[in-house]
Write a structure and sequence with these properties.
367 residues; Glycerol-3-phosphate (1)-acyltransferase; seven-stranded mixed β-sheet; four-stranded mixed β-sheet
């Protein structure tokens, strides 16, 4: 029996047609950092497998139990490859040792979440993961129950809102504030800094903020300001929540659709000119790692054309409590909302850069 290399399978395989008599066996490590060693004299080294973030496996080989080889004998390889140079008696002892090479001593797995998103959430203990899932289930149960009751109240008030306060809809926003407070209060603490920097409810403005989590909407509604969110059209299809957003006057937007973006921009300008306020997440989507992304200029274009202030708001902590992609879990923590003084300007790019710098500096100082 001989070992021959088969290019089709990219490995060495036994050839049963040849006479079974290799006399000497050597083991070589492909991609090895140290030279050849004899597994029968130095002892079989068992592999340790480490799963990297994107699924590739790298293997390092350590010494067997009871054996202390010299430093030169250590090897690091992607796999062991055996080939024959002569005759060898295939004893039961060798086959037993050969099979040991294929058995991993231990496996350490790292989730892909460790490469993206909030790293703390990727290494939580199983007990904490279970608690977070239970809290997440309770969170959605509470928010759904409260939303059903308050949505009925919103429906009753809607005709009067359209008649007397069509653009600001303060009554609806007070109901939404009550819904957010009742949902958030049992699970986390919200601290607001700079509340006096908010313009009065009758002053039109463009509000902008960083976007970290699904919890951002709840947190911002607790401020009680009657601003209109820019939301994906698919959100309006959700029962109760989507319908309530429609009654609040939220503005739909189709992403990656230039025509829809233009219509949304015109609608926001018209709303601001009539005394309403709009709220933008200039990053466009939630951050996966908590870092501040590039700002789009739509919100700042509205402010410069309408001559209204831009109010920068920084949200801290929401991404760690409910990370992006893990909306079914609710980790312990607190949320901090920092409201900065309004900024004014006629230049869209300057407004965008100034607002982003303010939010970025606050994230560094307060986070």
């Amino acid at each position: 029996m001989e070992l021959s290399y088969h290019p089709q399978f990219s490995r060495f395989m036994f050839n049963p047609s040849s006479p079974p008599a290799p006399r000497k066996m050597e083991a070589r490590c492909l991609s090895s950092t140290s030279s050849i060693f004899n597994p029968l004299s130095a002892g079989i080294r068992t592999p340790k497998i480490t799963a990297q973030a994107k699924g590739s496996l790298s293997k390092t080989y350590g010494p067997p139990v009871g054996h202390s080889p010299s430093r030169a004998n250590y090897a690091s390889a992607s796999w062991y490859t055996f080939y024959s140079k002569g005759k060898f008696n295939w004893s039961h002892d060798y086959l037993k040792r050969h099979n040991q090479v294929r058995v991993p001593r231990y496996i350490v797995a790292r989730s892909e979440i460790a490469g993206t998103g909030y790293p703390d959430a990727a290494h939580q203990l199983p007990e904490l993961q279970l608690v977070s899932k239970v809290k997440g289930f309770c969170f959605y149960a509470v928010t759904a129950s409260v939303a059903i009751i308050l949505f009925m109240l919103m429906l009753v008030a809607h005709p009067f809102v359209l008649l007397f306060d069509r653009y600001r809809r303060k009554a609806h926003h007070q109901i939404a504030k009550m819904w957010a407070l009742l949902t958030v209060a049992p699970f986390l603490k919200v601290e607001v800094v700079g509340l006096d920097n908010l313009p009065s409810s009758d002053t039109p403005a463009v509000y902008v903020s960083n976007h970290q989590s699904f919890l951002d909407i709840y947190t911002l509604l607790t401020l009680g300001r009657s601003f209109k969110f820019i939301s994906k059209t698919s959100i309006f299809l959700f029962p109760i929540i989507g319908w309530a957003m429609f009654l609040l006057g939220a503005i739909p937007l189709k992403r990656m659709d230039s025509r829809s973006q233009l219509q949304t921009l015109k609608r926001c300008i018209n709303l601001v000119k009539k005394g309403g306020s709009v709220f933008y997440f200039p990053e466009g989507t939630r951050s996966k790692d908590g870092k501040l992304g590039t700002f789009k200029k739509g919100a700042f274009s509205i402010a410069s054309k309408c001559g209204v202030p831009v109010v920068p708001i920084t949200l801290i902590g929401t991404g760690k409590i409910m990370p992006t992609g893990m909306e079914s879990r609710l980790y312990p923590g607190s949320v901090k909302v920092v409201i900065q003084k309004p900024v004014y300007g006629k230049n869209t790019e300057e407004l965008c850069n100034e607002a982003r710098n303010i939010i970025a500096e606050t994230l560094v100082n307060e986070g």
